[in-house]
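Curious: why this fold?
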Amino acid sequence: MAKPIRVLVVDDSPLIRQLLTSMLSEENTGIEVVGTAADPFIARDKIKQLRPDVITLDVEMPRMTGLQFLKNLMRLYPMPVVMVSSLTEQGAPETLDALELGAVDYIAKPQIKNEAAFKRFAKHLVEKITIASTAKVRILETEKVQQRRSQVETVQSYHRWIAIGASTGGTEAIKEVLMTVPKHCPPIVITQHIPAVFSRSFAMRLNHSLELEVCEAENGLEVLPGRVIIAEGDHHLEFIKQQGKTVCQLSASEPVNRHRPSVGVMFDSLRTVITPSKLVVVLLTGMGNDGASALARLKQEGASTLVQDEASSVVWGMPGAAVAQGAVDEVVPLSEVARRMLSLAAVKQ
């Protein structure tokens, strides 16, 4: 039998520590809670003593915030961390900060209203911890990314659009890719698996930190050169023609591949508004297989397809699924994604 995943639960609330421990200790989870800690100082000692595989970490804690602890942890003892925090618009920047510091994933603190909600939360928590236990902990090195920017060739005109899909580890991968993209760029549309309360903060953060115009998708927003559009959380990003323009259309239809927004939905919708041969389609790090089949359809119809390699992915689920389907023209490290996708976008079709 495989060894259980050893987890340390870090939270200042006794109730939350008890609840998480109970959920993770159920039979057949493959997880063992080896300890709990009420604050980062206790957690520091227990990490040295217990050597857990994964930590669940709260953001707001006494004596030291979860973010400061995470920053110290990633500098001294990098390991997979799943943030268990309040998924609110006010808390979104802190959770995005945690991902930037190296946390693998996040989940909302439980507000259990009934047994079904309890089971749903428990299932998602186990899934995220299981994935985190196999993830590659990766911290964005801004200086190196900025050095690579000079290696990206700026061309006078682009002839193709770029579509990007991502999931676990994707917020930082997307940021790294876009940091090297020039202000004069082809239209870029992105679906990242992200909750509704986070997508606006994510888009605003990128818009403020990059030279690019980065927008959260909204109905009627036009797809334009120099504009990056990010799917709104809890809505599929689709496209329609309207008075000769291509504009966004948000949909609250059922999740696809368990996700809304779904990468596959966005990829398939692009086929209705632009000839696939005028697309460069990219899959970055992510859990599951969302987007892989749609990527294959686009490749068959003439799109250029590119995925992040396993070594640089936090989780090689979505890119790996696309490779397994024979849907990929190129597999490249994250550091090369921007250069290759822009080079392909400059090719006339």
About this structure: The longest strand covers residues 31-37. Residues 5-134 form a domain with the Rossmann fold fold (CATH 3.40.50.2300). The longest helix spans residues 115-134. The chain has two domains: 5-134, 142-345.
